[in-house]
Amino acid sequence: MQHQPVEGFSKLSKQRKIDWLISEYLSNDRSYEQILQQYWNNDDNLQKLHEEFSENTISNFYMPYGIAPNFLIDGKLLALPMAVEESSVVAAASKAAKFWLDKGGFKTTIINTEKLGHTHFVLNVEPHKLLHFFNFKLKKKLLEATEDITANMRKRGGGILDIKLIDKTSELENYFQLKASFDTVDSMGANFINSCLEQFGKTLKEEVANEAEFSQEEKDSLQIVMNILSNYTPDCVVRAEVSCKIEDLKDDSGISNEEFAWKFKRAVTIAEIEPYRATTHNKGIMNGVDAVVIATGNDFRATEACAHAYAARNGKYSSLTHCTTDNGIFRFWIDLPISVGVVGGLTNLHPLVKFSLALLGKPTAQELMSILAVSGLAQNFGALRSLVTTGIQKGHMKMHLFNILNQFGATEEEKQHFVTYFKDKTVSHHEVISELEKLRNK
């Protein structure tokens, strides 16, 4: 090994962590310390707050925080906060919002809000015997044992919806689940769900040990493997859609409304049947979803995992969005499974998260679900609109232009030159470098 392991790194002060990293990995180059320090907040209390969000924190990692205006969602005009580093995401969402602004905007429907969690356990017992025990004794005990945990959630209108015994012994020997469904109202609910499940595990162990119908050998075979929520929530789903007459699909690319509708629908159909395309198609949807998820202090890894699992729910990975052009009506929609919250976690702590939620009118969790689905649908519409007309690179690379120029230390005067130069051309990395060399050699 070129480097030495460190003991007790988490117990070191922030400065000592930095000193060790620079000494061990960065050849004692103190310029790296300046890079870290320039992202510290000048407000010591705010900096401490950020450092306590996670572990072993030595600096803050900034992402652009942008605004996509003109979103008409269920009759309300909103400006969406988006935390994202990828060029053209905010621009594409904004352009799609403006396109649908005079066509009735986006309509949403909450299909369901059910969240799931499991107690996974192994028990060497006949399934019918366990099912009888569950139906006539255990289920009631599980609900009673969690009454204190669920009290506040039940006051808000949520709580445990149901508990089922799932027999998985055909897939893994002696493997069963307690599958519980929850309504967590305005919270994402991870801590609440996991607390309930851990109590399920304890109660299951106690009740099996006290069950007269089980032999001692059966009792001894019980193993509680784990108690954990599932980020796959196929019954926590929102639908967002847009529609208009095909004759109103005015596009400035030069193709007819009918051709645009046909090509757009065909592009969606390709994503429905071709996993290679569907992966990129859905990634684009999540560009829009994740940007708002991050801005509102929610877990974008959970939303990603859930969306992609849902996209493969029928045994083949497919598009999350769908399109029809029946009877002269263009309709484009998404059914998005997503579990988010507007209370708890960072929503009560991070100043920019508070700003985001205030900007959105302090939405309920269901309203935020709708906003997120709309953001994903708008991003997908913008991407497909470009793909079937001018091509994706024209808009994307134009937004990426400043990133390329900044890599080469371009001046403001040089940047303005390139804005004019690429006004009627497609930006390419090679062309930028070539023109920059010409400009500087004059």
From TrEMBL:
One of its GO terms (molecular function) is hydroxymethylglutaryl-CoA reductase (NADH) activity. It comes from the Bacteria. It is an enzyme of class 1 (oxidoreductase). One of its GO terms (biological process) is coenzyme A metabolic process. It catalyses: (R)-mevalonate + 2 NAD(+) + CoA = (3S)-3-hydroxy-3-methylglutaryl-CoA + 2 NADH + 2 H(+). Pathway: Metabolic intermediate metabolism; (R)-mevalonate degradation; (S)-3-hydroxy-3-methylglutaryl-CoA from (R)-mevalonate: step 1/1. Gene3D superfamilies: 1.10.8.660, 3-hydroxy-3-methylglutaryl-coenzyme A Reductase, Chain A, domain 2. The keyword Oxidoreductase applies. Its EC number is 1.1.1.88. Signal peptide: none annotated. Keywords: NAD, Oxidoreductase. Belongs to the HMG-CoA reductase family. This is 3-hydroxy-3-methylglutaryl coenzyme A reductase. It comes from Epilithonimonas arachidiradicis. The gene is mvaA.
